[in-house]
Amino acid sequence: MKLSTPRWWYRRERSHAPVTRMLLRPLSWVWAGATAQRIARATPVDPGAPVISVGNLTVGGSGKTPVVRELLRLLRAEGIEAQGLTRGHGGRLAGPERVDPATHSAVDVGDEPLLLASEAPVWVARDRPAGARAAVAEGAAVLVMDDGHQNPSLNKALSLIVVDGETRDDEWPFGDGAVFPSGPMREPLARGLTRADAVIVLLPDDAPDLDPELRAVFGDLPVFTARLQPAGSPPPGPQLGFAGIAKPWKVERALTAAGCDLIDFASFPDHAAFSDGDLKALADQAEARGAGLVTTEKDWVRLPAEWRDRVAAWPVAARFEDEAAVMVLLRRVVAPPA
Element (H or E) spanning 35, and its range? Predict the structure, then answer.
């Protein structure tokens, strides 16, 4: 059974859930040690094309997938044959498999690859080197690898870290700095930053500018700011929202900020497989209150086909505040075709 993300993970003060944090701390040491050993012992493979790794230092909720999608868009707009590479979390296919939205479902390849495949060719592969070689064989000039920071199997021309820039309401992207399961970190912050070439801070569209205190965490690393912007208006009229992502409360807040008449909101675990019972309960509640149903694109692609006409998908997109500066960085590892 999947569990929802503990909100206290993202509170900087250790006064939240102190006993739980303490009890889980030994498991955190085991997790951090295993991650460090796996990275240290790996022999990275050169797949024959530059690899741009997009990862994070926490277990979810930073906004990696929208950033990967935007990088693919920018590169392909330059005429560069950029293709995506992902493990395909939640999908049954081990790959290498090129994602075909016309025939594949989230059960096959996972939800995130389906979203990315709307922008560029995307490959799912639990064996990342095999997936990278398959993509290069099919003409990929550069690979954008989703969730690659703790995966040491490929040589990386560029390693980017995505960080959730929300610091309102006592939130902090790294919590108290504890490693999973005592906190949200995949590895200690300082250790993860040593392998990064740059940081992308993703801010909600309605948030103020980047928090100077958060910017100082990254020291001399280049930092680029992006905004998670609505790609369309929320559906009109009263709406009952729901989401199964790492930080569902961010969706509720974003819908409200975008002007949605949100009467209620239901949270589910990340990558939740919505049952017919779940959806019927939501639909009954919405009908009783004269409301529609709205969710994220990522959640919508996981809905059973018979429910998709009954739920509105609210699209969002990552957009860089200084797109030109990002392109300068990307061109250092891959040049546009002559």
Answer: helix 18-41
d(CA 269, CA 252): 14
Q: Mean pLDDT, to the nearest integer, of 81-104? A: 93
Per the CB < 8 A criterion, the answer to whether 176 and 13 are in contact is yes
Write the pLDDT tens digit of every residue in 196-225.
999 999 999 999 899 999 999 999 999 999
Q: Which amino acid is at 314?
A: W
Structure pTM? 0.92
List the 292-296 sheet strands across, edge first. 261-267, 238-243, 292-296, 312-314
Q: Residue 41 carries which DSSP code?
A: H
Sign for the CA dihedral angle at 331, 144, 153, 45 comes to negative
Q: How far is CA 198 from CA 27, 36, 112, 285, in A?
A: 30, 20, 23, 45
Q: In what order do the strands lie in the sheet with 97-98?
A: 97-98, 122-124, 82-86, 142-146, 51-55, 158-164, 198-204, 223-230, 316-320
Cα radius of gyration rounded to whole Å, the chain: 20
